[in-house]
Specification:
The protein is an alpha+beta fold. The chain folds into 3 domains: 2-89, Uridine Diphospho-n-acetylenolpyruvylglucosamine Reductase, domain 3, CATH 3.30.465.10; 92-223, no CATH class; 233-342, Alpha-Beta Plaits, CATH 3.30.70. 31% of the residues lie in helices and 24% in strands. The chain has helices at residues 2-5, 22-28, 65-71, 106-114, 163-173, 177-189, 201-204, 247-259, 300-319, 334-340, 344-354, 363-372; strands at 9-11, 44-50, 56-59, 80-86, 88-90, 93-102, 120-127, 137-147, 212-214, 233-243, 265-273, 287-297, 323-324. The strands form 3 sheets. The chain has an 8-stranded antiparallel sheet. Strands 3-2-4 form a 3-stranded antiparallel sheet, with helices on one face. Strand 2 and strand 3 form a beta hairpin. Helix 8 runs antiparallel to helix 9 (300-319).
Length: 375
């Protein structure tokens, strides 16, 4: 979609990497860097969906709303998305900047800086994984709008830069405290020097040494640097959604859990999500999202350590009224699943109504169904 829209338009809401299908993004209700737009649910005008009986239905926030609420964030269990009409926005030009704040100050920063300033079009917060300030300091990446449209000669979207450097940084982070400190130093000092500025300053504005990009550039992130081809290890994503008022207490407890275990935390970031009115919502109220990228051995011992860590993080998330993202790994217990998603039985009942023969199925579906105790 980005290649079709560029250079004049951009996607309104999407995940932070662009390798996913449209239907897949709708089915998990993906969210990303646009803290104002929130998840993709808010950008959907309508969808055409083929149902289990072979019929095709149109649904939207105002038409066939029950079907809409189950298809969006329904993990592909209610039908196949044939067509979607989505909101798009101008491919605005942004001035990039970074600043370091304390993680505990993030709610105040969001309320006083990010939320009221509508010209900040994109944002994400990157937490330190270095032992000396583990999850205590945060690099805030912000993108301030300086023009509605890029210059007429704006080139095609290029491949993201610094892929090799990023992969080296991630690999080094697996080798202990010294390398984690080096990673944090690199993120603070070296990465800004390699930043890809895709809009010529002379074409957009006269502002010193500003680095300018179009909206499509940071939303065209690189996945190759995340690829781990080692057979004896793998890197696992986690995501936890915390009510905004509980963020500081949650991050304090999560920090201690992660410090007192042995699996390397390769990356940690914070995103913004809004209240999501879908049937199986990861955010029934406005929340902050903690995203973790954790390395583990692929043997039985590594799996056991990851299972224990996941359950500890889920428990502290539930303690503070939050939810975990369901599909990443099936390490949660039945008690944790139903405590985090009490509406799951109703969701599964709707599944039986729309798809009584379970035509649309998956390992994930069979697992949550078994854990929920639904026959």
């Amino acid at each position: 979609i980005q290649n079709l829209l560029h250079p004049h338009f951009a996607v309104k809401a999407m995940q932070s990497t662009d390798i996913f299908s449209v239907g897949g993004s709708l089915s998990v209700n993906a969210h990303g860097m646009d803290h104002q737009a929130g998840s993709v649910a808010g950008s959907i005008r309508s969808m055409r969906v083929i149902l289990a009986d072979g019929s095709v239905a149109t649904c939207s926030p105002t038409e066939n709303t029950d079907l809409f609420r189950h298809v969006v964030g329904g993990y592909g269990l209610f039908g196949v998305v044939l067509e979607a009409t989505l909101d798009i926005v101008d491919n605005a030009v942004y001035r990039t900047s970074r600043e370091i704040i304390k993680s505990d100050d993030f709610p105040k920063f969001f309320a006083e800086v990010l939320e009221p300033n509508k010209d900040i079009g994109l944002f994400y917060g990157h937490l330190s994984t270095a032992p000396g300030n583990f999850l205590e300091d945060m690099i805030v990446y912000r993108y301030d709008k300086v023009a509605e449209q890029p210059p007429a000669d704006q080139p095609e979207i290029g491949e993201p830069g610094s892929v090799g450097l990023k992969r080296v940084i991630i690999n080094l982070a697996k080798w202990g405290s010294l390398f984690q400190e080096l990673k944090w130093f690199t993120e603070k000092t070296l990465e800004p020097k390699f930043e890809s500025c895709t809009v010529a300053r002379s074409s957009a504005m006269a502002e010193g040494e500003a680095c300018l990009v179009t909206r499509n550039n940071p939303m065209h992130d690189s996945v190759p640097y995340l690829f781990n081809d080692q057979m004896e290890e793998t890197d696992i994503l986690h995501e936890y959604f915390i009510p905004r008022a509980a963020y500081v207490e949650f991050i304090t407890e999560a920090r201690e859990i992660l410090r007192n275990q042995t699996l390397p935390v390769l990356n940690a970031s914070v995103r913004i999500v809004h209240r999501e009115d879908v049937a199986l919502s990861y955010a029934p109220e406005p929340a902050y999202s903690l995203v973790l990228y954790i390395n583990q051995p692929t043997d039985a011992g590594g799996n056991a350590r990851m299972r224990a860590l996941t359950r500890a993080l889920i428990d502290v998330t539930i303690k503070h009224g939050g939810r975990f993202f369901l599909p990443y790994q099936l390490h949660y217990t039945a008690k944790e699943l139903l405590a985090s998603y009490p509406e799951l039985p109703a969701f599964l009942a709707a599944k039986r109504q729309y798809d009584p023969t379970e035509l649309f199925s998956s390992t994930f579906y069979r697992a949550i169904k078994a854990l929920s105790g639904v026959a």
